[in-house]
Specification:
The structure is a homotetramer. Chain A has a 7-stranded parallel beta sheet with strand order 4-3-2-1-5-6-9, sandwiched between helices. In chain A, strands 7-8 form a two-stranded antiparallel sheet. By secondary structure, the first copy, chain A, is an alpha/beta fold. Helices cover 36% and strands 24% of the residues of chain A. Chains A and D meet through strand 3, strand 4 and helix 3 of A and strand 3, strand 4 and helix 3 of D. Strand 7 of chain C pairs antiparallel with strand 7 of chain D.
Chain lengths: 160, 160, 160, 160
């Protein structure tokens, strides 16, 4: 691979509140400013807001779609990947990234967090799931307090 | 589909403690006694113990394998499915079931829990993950205190 | 894996002529008589006819479905696998078998033939595709003149 | 999706002769000159030659990898997609394109041709498979005599 650029996934719900969209857009903007390529699931909500942010700063956006149709991509996806494998594409979203930023999200996002952690890909969390087992918190999801902190941590922790 | 039988997935780590193996084996045995078909990821640990239990009661066991090779199935898998799609097969494990029993487990199990809950498939938990968001517990994982209780709840909640 | 049974896939169109259905049903019947487990894509046409034949002789039938819903399985599928990965499930159909019998079929069947041959899984053809490259026939698809011959060849060539 | 660019897949063996590599490189170069984005399976042989050609003209290259590791991408892939779903990724390669150019190739390429034709995605062939059924040639693979002709036909036939 010729590129030196880093690939960072942003995951979160395909529907989201205005507050979450604002966080996601800021994450996308910050990733683009840092020269990272944004990977996401290509749909609406957090994904769209992140792509919008990245695009506004001239960043590159990749959307790894579950369905059969590139038209399902949000308007800010530049490189749509049409997997046609449904939500099994969640694993491709996180595997295609060197670190993952999770913003809020529901059970689909939880599956992506699981796939990322299973693969040793760092997960930075903004208002997202917390995990406990046997009464103890699992500290694998690295918390961030702001979009800028999330991006800094993601870039610092990005695996090869 | 001609069968009236219910399909219940047992998910958990491919390595596990003796205590977890005992729980899994008892779950498998109980599922077989109730006439349910056991679906799992086909490998070792919790999966193997559950298959061993089901087999000991004459139950049917299906192992949905990640790799390329049926030989990777544990010795108690009767119907090995060779997906060759890696851990994307996690989604097929839970989708092929009408309810899921999670026993302990690590991040792969977490991804399966996420996929199941996203699909509206009930998840019964035995010593497994607890989920929190925004400081509040998500109550989607239904706790059970014993293998027998887990199986009863799974069969009662099984979706069509 | 405890089973000594052989797994043979039957592939072909989800719609088919009466003549093809008759071939497929006879293949299914013969597989069941020989104690083989029938693997297929779980839908209609050739798949349904093969499952009907196998069921009529008390055979076991596995349907590896593309979609999200076990209800899509034909009525003779006993073990429905709900992959939710769309037509990427074609590779799981052939990988789960030790030999493949292709009956007629269209482009989906062609993709399955390609996946099987790439994996070194023998393909027996009944009125199905012929392949040529650079003006020469590729002889990898082993022709059969009858269902019984197809089943005999499949069982003889079945890989481990 | 904001982009107006067209996505064209180049498929063929991960090992290839010098002559095929020359064809593939010329196809890649021509696609880049026409402003199309090259999609491929990301590995060696025809895929690498096509990416090298596209890169030499400043084109964008996307490699949809079967494995777990971005390092497996050939050196000319700019956007590596790490699917981790093995050769089931073949379907994502063709679905992500609006037309497919097949150069020589073996059974994996055959599976991709099958998936593309099943999905209504045009396939242009350069020295690749010919398909026959019931003694008659299937004319779905559109022949081209040169890389330039293949690219022109692919761009003209590209689906939306």
């Amino acid at each position: 691979m010729v590129t030196k650029q880093r690939f960072i996934a942003v995951i979160g719900g395909s529907e989201c509140s205005q507050e979450e969209a604002k966080l996601a857009e800021e994450v996308g903007r910050e990733l683009a400013k840092q020269g990272a390529i944004l990977v996401c699931g290509g749909l609406g909500g957090v994904m769209e807001a992140a792509c919008r942010g990245a695009s506004s700063e001239g960043g590159v956006t990749v959307g790894i779609l579950p369905g059969d149709n590139r038209q399902a991509a949000n308007p800010y996806v530049q490189i749509p990947i049409v997997t046609s494998i449904g939500y099994a594409r969640n694993i491709a979203v996180v595997k295609s990234a060197q670190a993952v930023i999770a913003i809020d999200g529901n059970y689909g996002t939880l599956s992506e967090i699981g796939h990322a952690l299973q693969s040793g890909i760092p997960v930075i969390g903004l208002n997202t799931w917390s995990l406990f087992k046997n009464g103890q918190q699992d500290s694998s999801i690295i918390p961030a307090q702001s979009p800028a902190e999330a991006v800094t941590k993601a870039l610092n922790l990005a695996v090869k």
